[in-house]
Amino acid sequence: MTWDRIELERRGWPTPPKIIELAERDPMVMGALEEWKAGIVGPDGPHRVISCLTVDIRDVTSLLLAVWAFGGALWTAALSRRWLDTATPGAVWDAETPDVRYGHAMHISGYSPVAAEHHRFAVETWGLAPPVQVTYRGLLSAQSEVIVAFSRDQFTRNGISAFTGRDWEFMRQLWQRCGGRDVGPSPFAPAPSPAPAPPVPAPPAPAPLPTLDIVLGTIRAAFQNARNRSSPMLGYMLARVERLVLAAVQERWGVRHVVLAGSFAFSWQALVLSIVDAVFIGLEDQLGEMFSPVLELARSLVHAELEKLLT
């Protein structure tokens, strides 16, 4: 995964959508993180964080950016009884009813960015290996709070982020664009200037992104193809989903979402598929489990047609 600084600057540094709430403003969070900010293992230990942010997990792009850029995240949640009963290496936790008696704090260390499935996050807890996998739906269901931190420990001795490969100044600016406070100049000594490299030809310009009209037309064609393969009842359901997907794409399709998608291992095509998934998840939450089989069939039909047209 890469974060193209030149592309960000060319587009005016788009602000990641919803990583905006300073964790320092929450007194309960402040109490929990006070010792970490003072230094652990304490008192006054060598490892400390400089600043913290909470993440709006309703925006999956923000969540993926936070986990990628800042070395994972602290996840606090109310676990379900079923999650506790299935807490084994590699277990998958999907949406359940949370139980506030089972509050727990864990570390999210990574994620699976496969767009055709629901995102899954690797959760480090209780020493389980391989880690538990929680789906994005599970994360949304668990009264979750996700916190990311900025720390000197995230950098090598040369002042390069161990997670993004970028220098302190780049990460400092990215942190501020996410809503964090200024963490100050680099505490690392500047690296010696390398010998000048011979000139190299400029790389080819990136392929232009499609216009919104082209994207919407592709989505309409995919839904029409799916309806042609469906029963009248399923076709009615697909027509309703199509309206919701078109509205969601028009609302979210913009420079910052496309650029953020380019930061990860998936493209604008996968971003469209992710928006489709989010609409189906929302409908399932509204209509209940009785409609789950119908919605899953509709989702698979739409995915198949979209993948044909987006390749």
State the low-pLDDT regions, or none. Answer: 1-27, 255-266
Separate helix tally: 11
How much helix is in the residues? 40-55%
Q: How far apart lie the N and C ends?
A: 21 Å
> Beta-sheet strand percentage?
5-15%
Spatial extent as radius of gyration: 22 Å
How do the helices and strands follow one another from N- to C-terminus? HEHEHEHEEEEHEHHHHHH
Bulk shape: flat
The biggest beta sheet reads:
8 strands, mixed
Secondary-structure-based class equals alpha+beta
**Overall pLDDT level:** 79
Question: Short description, anyone?
Answer:
By secondary structure, this protein is of the alpha+beta class. The protein is 43% helix and 13% strand.
Polypeptide structure, described:
- With 311 residues, the protein is α+β, with helices and mostly antiparallel strands.
- The chain contains eleven helices and eight strands.
- It has helices at 5-10, 27-38, 60-69, 81-85, 136-141, 168-177, 212-228, 232-252, 255-261, 268-287, 292-310, and strands spanning 21-22, 51-55, 73-78, 92-93, 103-112, 120-124, 132-135, 145-150.
- Strands 1-2-8-3-5-6-7-4 form an eight-stranded mixed beta sheet.
- A hairpin with a 7-residue loop joins strand 6 (120-124) and strand 7 (132-135).
- Helix 7 packs antiparallel against helix 8 (232-252).
- Mean pLDDT is 79; it is low at 1-27 and 255-266.
